[in-house]
Specification:
The complex is a heterodimer of chains A (158) and B (351).
Chain A: E1 4-8, H1 27-36, E2 41-46, E3 58-61, H2 65-74, E4 77-81, H3 84-92, E5 97-100, H4 105-108, E6 114-117, H5 144-155
Parallel strand pairs in A: 1-2, 1-4, 2-3, 4-5, 5-6
Helix pairs in contact in A: 1-5
Chain B: E1 6-12, H1 20-28, E2 36-41, H2 53-64, E3 68-73, H3 79-89, E4 94-99, E5 102-104, H4 108-114, E6 120-128, E7 168-170, E8 177-180, H5 199-209, E9 213-224, H6 239-255, E10 264-267, H7 272-288, E11 292-295, E12 309-311, H8 313-320, H9 328-334, H10 341-349
Parallel strand pairs in B: 1-2, 1-4, 2-3, 6-9, 10-11, 11-12
Antiparallel strand pairs in B: 4-8, 5-9, 6-8, 7-9
Helix pairs in contact in B: 1-2, 7-10
Classes of the chains: A alpha/beta (158), B alpha/beta (351).
């Protein structure tokens, strides 16, 4: 059965112009895998200036929080990095998948979500320091298949 | 122009050759000239300023403008006695109490006098500090309501520009103002220490208490040079004097039946996600705190909220200076926090 997934793929842009270390590097692979099965529908949300992921059906930019809440309610499930979206979803009780890298899901995540952390050894030592001091490291993240499986689990009520 | 007779009085100490001349010249240049100017000289020993070339020019200027000036020697016991003396000695129905480190814009007396209609006890100008940025009046300020006079987030509104340009009815005034002798029959509180902390609030609120209206006219601007040298408080500038006066002030408020209030400020100088986390706690926070003021970055998160005043981070900084006490990341850092950010917010704001 065709399902709708909402993806919020980026964390806030950093002041030094570098890649935010919380950004997940394998979204394109995740979307490709989701799209290959049952013709799933994938919606990317974000803001003006953010790159569109390849293969998404829609890229919604600059939506209000109310609009995003409606989107969340209508979708099967959602995925994001450690950004505002998990907090918005939590406020309306919608479970989803959060891909963590250097930030700690015990502090910034919600137990009801599927918090995907590859290894605690990749957490930044000073969790509350500014992100500009942390370098992006693609090794800190789980493989795309792990994200896809988590999304499928949640979308089937698992 | 409303033509009323005004006596300007000023107490001075240690500022003969710094800010006092600036004040006097600004009085001479008023578009509505005062009839009298009395300088209460608290210097020990005082100088005969008539012998100094600079003051020969200044006094000559005042005379040429039709202002009857005089110098009276204070007892060196602080400004309260001098202000009280001015009340007793003034021959006019209206007095302007000046500060010896202020400079009046030329229209101050004229603009204040325009507001001096029946029932008005005193009218004050803005008192701005041009050595630093001058900001617009924050929206959440209580317009000098007496019940908020001990709330550190509610600064005196005379220190800000008022973009609306509207005259405001207030409960008490600060620093410098035009007042009606009849409204000041109660006089200055002579029980205050020589530093006379809170004396303007006591003096003007008592007018209000007695049925007179007090106004702030933002189209009149006095520049306060807040000069560090000299000053009428001088060597009396001691903590015990301030403590004494603060207690006297609180006792008087109690006597007048004033119940003090405070606004509860919380500052969210943080990201959208942090705002959303905080919002979950809002029902508990509203239950615990009345008069809630939230300084926020993302209005949209709270747009359906009622009974809360929202201000900007800039306004919060104006009101309290340091906003670090509300930095949840600092809070967590300082405590080597390892629980959720929601729990950190809850503990930080006390819910």
């Amino acid at each position: 059965m065709k399902k709708t997934f909402v993806i919020s793929p980026y964390s806030k842009k950093m002041r030094n112009g570098k890649e935010n270390p919380k950004n997940y590097p394998y979204w394109n692979e995740v979307i490709s895998s989701l799209k290959s099965k049952n013709g799933n529908y994938v919606v990317q949300i974000g803001i003006e200036g953010e790159a569109e992921l390849s293969g998404v059906d829609r890229f919604l930019k600059g939506n209000s929080l109310k609009e995003l809440e409606l989107l969340l309610k209508d979708c099967n499930t959602w995925a994001s990095v450690d950004n505002f979206f998990q907090h918005l979803a939590s406020s309306i009780g919608k479970r989803g998948v959060v891909v963590f890298g250097p930030s700690d899901p015990k502090i910034f995540g919600y137990q009801e979500n599927e918090n995907l952390l590859k290894d605690r050894k990749f957490l930044k030592p000073r969790q509350f320091d500014i992100w500009e001091k942390t370098e992006f490291n693609s090794d800190a993240f789980v493989e795309p298949q792990v994200v896809v499986e988590a999304l499928e689990r949640l979308s089937t009520g698992g | 122009m409303k033509n009323i007779d005004i006596t300007v009085h000023v107490s001075t100490k240690g500022r003969y050759f710094t800010t006092l001349p600036l004040f006097l010249v600004s009085v001479a240049q008023q578009t509505l000239k005062p009839k009298y100017l009395i300088i209460y000289d608290d210097n020990t020993p005082p100088q005969d300023l008539r012998n100094h070339p600079l003051y020969q020019y200044i006094f000559g200027l005042l005379t040429s403008k039709g202002i009857n000036w005089s110098v009276s020697f204070g007892a060196g016991k602080g400004q309260i006695l001098n202000h009280q003396k001015a009340l007793a000695e003034a021959k006019t129905d209206f007095l302007y109490r000046g500060d010896d480190d202020t400079v009046l814009e030329p229209n101050v007396l004229e603009v204040l006098a325009e507001q001096m209609i029946d029932g008005i006890g005193a009218v004050a100008p803005l008192v701005l500090h041009p050595n630093q940025p001058i900001y617009d009046l924050p929206r959440h300020f209580s317009h000098n309501k007496i019940e908020y006079c001990e709330d550190p987030t509610q600064l005196n509104i005379q220190w800000f520009r008022h973009p609306d340009g509207k005259v405001k009815s207030v409960d008490h005034l600060y620093s410098t103002f035009l007042y009606r002798k009849e409204a000041a029959k109660h006089g200055y509180n002579l029980n205050l220490s020589p530093v006379a902390h809170r004396e303007e609030s006591l003096f003007t609120y008592e007018m209000k208490h007695n049925g007179w209206e007090l106004l702030i006219e933002p189209n009149a601007v006095v520049n306060h040079f807040r000069y560090s040298e000299g000053g009428i408080r001088g060597e009396n500038h001691k903590k015990e004097n301030f403590d004494h006066d603060a207690q006297l002030f609180l006792d008087k408020l109690k006597e007048w039946g004033i119940v003090l209030k405070k606004k509860h400020l919380i500052v969210l100088d943080s990201g959208l996600g942090d705002h959303l986390v905080f919002k979950k706690l809002l029902p508990k926070i509203k239950e615990k705190y009345d008069n809630l003021v939230l300084a926020i970055c993302y209005n949209e998160v709270f747009k359906d909220e009622k009974d809360i005043e929202f201000i900007s981070i800039h306004e919060a900084r104006l009101a309290v200076g340091n906003i670090d006490p509300w930095n949840v990341y600092k809070y967590m850092w300082d405590r080597s926090w390892d629980r959720s950010i929601e729990e950190a917010y809850a503990e930080m704001v006390g819910v």
